[in-house]
Design a protein that fits this description.
With 568 residues, this protein is an alpha+beta fold. The chain is 54% helix and 15% strand. The protein has 4 domains: 5-198, no CATH class; 211-309, PAS domain (Beta-Lactamase), CATH 3.30.450; 310-390, Helix Hairpins, CATH 1.10.287; 393-567, Heat Shock Protein 90 (2-Layer Sandwich), CATH 3.30.565.10.
Length: 568
């Protein structure tokens, strides 16, 4: 059985108490049966022995609700088993020694203890049991010696113990001691196999990319892996089905989607899809619940839950749509480049020839200069458009984003747009990110230039900051470019990253679209917002690990090769 944390330890301990209590009940029942049908024959002081066993049984029952820390649980259980062996030794002595039926209880305790506790305890219990046998054998020998002369043993007790002679007592003791060690060893081997299987199952389930949880037929949570706790952190402290349903669905189990499955009225399984929860940061998920039974019979043994994070699938679907869109744009861009650039070059050359015949201060010369500048601007738009449509592979390498930002700031402060603008850079913790440094430098430089052009007021400023952050429960870094300009019209916010969408005079509308493409190629995201204090704020989030990237086509295959290389 795979258990979870301290809850599993407590359930395991309670099961042990129940088993021990059953053994003591059997012993008490046997003694009562002997008293009822045979009187005191074969037992010495049966009432005293039965009373002692009742006391031990009461202690067992009182231990059921005990909460014991996992670190001391094994030592506590070992002490209980040693006390069991001591109690059994007393019962064996009071019921005929080596001829007592309770000698078999030694074997039961040894098997249970060897299966329950780690292998390092295997030699402890047969050793203690052998000491008990030695005590019983010594009493047998003493009783045989007391037949010819008075001794310390009560007369009736000594007469009962003389049923086993000296040689028989020694041989029985040696044979039983050997049997104890063999049984303990074999039970320890079986226990090791069970422990190995448990750890293997736990390792497999713990490293699965899906959340896994198992609830037994009594509604107790027996296992859940780390991915399940990540997807449903509210259910981390839950110990039963009601707590789990409250953490997953916000309601008790009898009102949750699990109600029909638990009651056996909704078939054997169901699949449920949940939406993303922005408040808790929980991603969209697919929940699969299955009712488990033995051999397909009506008796159910529990409920198995499998939770799949749908965020990667949705991002992959969005990436595939982007690939299709970019493919269509690439085909169109190739046609545009052929149909527009060649005539545009001819027009530009013709205008330059005409300019030579115009005086420097003539109106014709001014108009010709305007045609040339607009031709250059149109050529720049086509160049950016082609850059946006191309799907070039990334060159991934471990890089500190702070180093890229320092280079970008050094470039920005030398621009004409930076005159009178205060450019501040705040780089805190700077973890390594596997990325294409040149591509990200283009993105950051584009965002910085846009912010420089929008900075206004008595103290125009561009603030660049970086910090660790979590997006959809994934660790990463956020880079923020914030200005104190007029901000972005709220109606324009949803469309600022669309190609050819620009409200700025002279803007082509391709810079932010190209920036979003580069960031998403790294598996990240870019967001635009208005600052409460005024101005615009662009945030670039990048995952810390490259396996979160969504790179297309040949880039994906090359990136995966690089990722494995860095992991090694």
């Amino acid at each position: 059985m795979i258990v979870h944390g301290s809850t599993g330890q407590i359930l395991k301990f309670r099961a042990l108490v129940v088993v021990r209590s059953l053994l003591y009940l059997m012993a008490i029942g046997f003694i009562i049966q002997r008293l009822f049908f045979h009187g005191d024959s074969g037992l010495y002081g049966p009432k005293v022995v039965a009373g002692a066993l009742f006391v031990v049984l009461a202690v067992n029952i009182s231990l059921i609700p005990l909460m014991t820390s996992g670190g001391r649980m094994n030592l506590f259980m070992a002490a209980l088993f040693v006390s069991d062996i001591a109690a059994i030794t007393c019962v064996v002595l009071a019921s005929g020694g080596f001829r007592s039926l309770f000698v078999t209880y030694y074997l039961l305790i040894l098997v249970i203890a060897s299966l329950w506790l780690p292998r390092r305890y295997t030699a402890l219990f047969p050793s203690v049991a052998t000491l008990g046998l030695a005590a019983v054998g010594a009493v047998h020998i003493l009783a045989n010696q007391q037949e010819s002369a008075p001794g310390p043993l009560p007369r009736e007790f000594a007469a009962m113990m003389r049923d086993v002679g000296f040689s028989a007592a020694v041989s029985d003791m040696l044979l039983l001691a050997l049997l104890f060690f063999i049984v303990a060893y074999l039970a320890g081997v079986v226990g090791d196999s069970l422990t190995l299987e448990q750890r293997l199952n736990s390792a497999i389930l713990g490293n699965m990319g899906e959340g896994v949880a198992f609830v037994d037929h009594r509604g107790r949570i027996m296992y859940r892996n780390a991915e399940f706790d990540r997807l449903f952190p509210e259910a981390d402290a839950a110990v039963d089905l009601d707590g789990l349903s409250m953490g997953m669905f916000g309601t008790a189990s009898n009102r949750s989607p699990l109600a029909g499955l638990v009651a056996g009225k909704a078939g054997e399984s169901f699949i449920l899809t949940t939406e993303a929860d922005d408040a808790s940061g929980r991603p969209p998920a697919e929940i699969r619940a299955t009712r488990l039974s033995l051999d397909g019979g009506p008796r159910r043994i529990g409920l198995f839950l499998l939770v799949i994070d749908l965020s990667p699938r949705l991002r992959m679907a969005a990436a595939e749509k982007s690939v299709e869109r970019f493919s269509a744009i690439s085909m169109m861009a190739a046609g545009l480049a052929h149909e527009i650039r060649n005539p545009l070059a001819s027009v530009r050359s013709a205008v330059q020839e005409l300019m030579a015949s115009f005086p420097g201060d003539s109106q014709e010369r001014v108009l010709a200069d305007l045609v040339l500048s607009e031709s250059d601007r149109l050529d720049g738009i086509i160049t950016r458009f082609l850059s946006f449509s191309r799907d070039e592979p990334l060159s991934l390498a471990p890089t500190h984003i702070g180093e890229i930002l320092r280079e970008v700031r050094a470039l920005l402060v030398r621009r004409d747009e930076a005159f009178m603008v205060r450019v501040e850079l705040d780089v805190g913790e700077d973890p390594e990110v596997i990325c294409d440094a040149d591509r990200l430098k283009e993105v950051f430089l584009n965002l910085g230039l846009n912010a420089l052009q929008l900075a206004r007021g008595d103290d125009p400023a561009l603030e660049i900051g970086m910090r660790r952050s979590v997006f959809h429960l994934l660790p990463g870094v956020s880079v923020v470019f914030a200005d104190n300009g007029p901000g972005i019209d709220p109606d324009d916010l949803p469309d600022v990253f669309q190609p050819f969408y620009s409200r700025r005079r002279g803007g082509t509308g391709m810079g932010l679209a190209l920036a979003r493409k580069q960031v998403e190629a790294h598996g990240g995201t870019i967001m635009a917002a208005n600052r409460p204090s005024g101005g615009a704020e662009f945030t670039v989030w990048l995952p810390l690990t490259a396996q979160d990237s969504f790179v297309k086509g040949r880039t994906a295959r090359r990136s995966v090769t690089r990722i494995h290389r860095y992991k090694e």
